[in-house]
Amino acid sequence: MHKFIILIVGLLIVSCGKKLPVIAPNVITEKTLHDTDDPAIWINKNDTSKSIVFGTDKNTEGAIYAFNLNGKVVENKTIRGLKRPNNVDVAYGFQINDSTQVDVIAFTERERKQIRLFSVPDMKPLDKGGFKVFTDATLPETNLPMGIALYKSEKTNKLYAIVGRKTGPKKAYLYQYELTTDSVGVHANLVRKFGEFSGKKEIEAIAVNNKEGIVYYSDEGHCIRKYHAEPSKGDKEIFCFGGEYFKEDIEGIAIAHYPNKSFLIVSNQQAGTFNVFDVKTNAFIKEVNLGTTETDGCDVTTTALGSAFPNGLFVSMNNDKTFFFHDLKKLKLEE
Questions:
Q1: Which residue in 224, 239, 252, 303 has the fewest CB atoms around it within 10 Å?
Q2: Global pTM value
Q3: How many of the other CB atoms lie within 10 Å of CB of 148?
Q4: Nearest-angstrom CA–CA distance, 285 and 256
Q5: How far apart are CA 187 and CA 127, in angstroms?
Q6: Could you give the 3-state DSSP secondary structure of residue 270?
Q7: Among 204, 131, 140, residue whose Cα is nearest residue 173
Q8: CB < 8 Å & 24+ apart, contacts of 170-175
Q9: Which of 69, 73, 30 minimizes the C-alpha distance to 50?
């Protein structure tokens, strides 16, 4: 009887430890110099086949790399000379004067304690060298920005940057800045502090569902936290979920929108996989193995990007200084 029980337990352990089959990438990018971390997809609405994937190279002598859809570095769109850029995000149609709207990328520059804002695709700085963040912090590392997500309100058309940091208090871990313009230029104005923190590890990955006005962030080692992105809707947490499906750290977050359903795709970092959740119900759907290791950041679009990615694109960071590009259909989200 004891031998039978031991056998059953052993089979369960083997079964639970079985590695998922690898879904091979369509493209692996050229290598960065130092340490890849987080990607963001910019969709060229005039010609989606010429869209760009931006990716951070997290180092004291870091950069925001620009890749074409073949994974080749586009040097004249790459921003170098940065001090530990961490996370990056994209937004469309930012009003910079009465007659001009531009697409933008924003990213954190940790060692300079600031966020940066550049127009895309001309890659011109809009921030006069950077916007300082967490300026009221008094404890070590509580003023070092890491995660960032841009939120453009469908209600007010305002653009916000939601920023996380290396460490922080158990309340008001995230700061939200409104990006505004006037005759002098662009400004980042602090409008609220919000977001709980378990204190277990850190908070890095942040993503916003612009369609629903919801912000998600990874409280590593604890759960995925969910809040309203609209400041007027208050700072009360909506939900804390999913922690039981992760081996250790909860990392990069991407949101895939289809006409009838949306999915949250989250890096299960130490397992080398991604967990997929239903956006509406927070329910776990499945786990997929895309062949990456120690993935920090990821991004997704369901928009067809020419003949290279006709079903949309999922981008994930790999621990060998590259990013993996998967045709979104390979993830079988709509099964």
A1: 239
A2: 0.94
A3: 26
A4: 14
A5: 7
A6: helix
A7: 204
A8: 170/196, 170/197, 170/198, 170/199, 171/195, 171/196, 171/197, 173/197, 173/203, 174/203, 174/206, 174/215, 174/217, 175/133, 175/134
A9: 69
3-state secondary structure of 290: coil
Q: Quote the tokens at residue 293.
A: 């290791």
pLDDT digits (tens, 9 = 90+) for 30-86: 999 999 999 999 999 999 999 999 999 999 999 999 999 999 999 999 999 999 999
Contact 312, 326 (CB under 8 A): no
The helix or strand, by DSSP H or E, that contains position 5, with its residue range, turns out to be helix 2-16
Determine the average pLDDT of the residues in 219-225.
Answer: 98
CB 216 within 8 A of CB 206: yes
Spans of all domains in the chain: 31-331
d(CA 22, CA 288) in angstroms, rounded, equals 8
Superfamily classification of domain 31-331: TolB, C-terminal domain (2.120.10.30)
Tell me how far apart the alpha carbons of residues 56 and 65 are, in angstroms, rounded to a whole number.
6
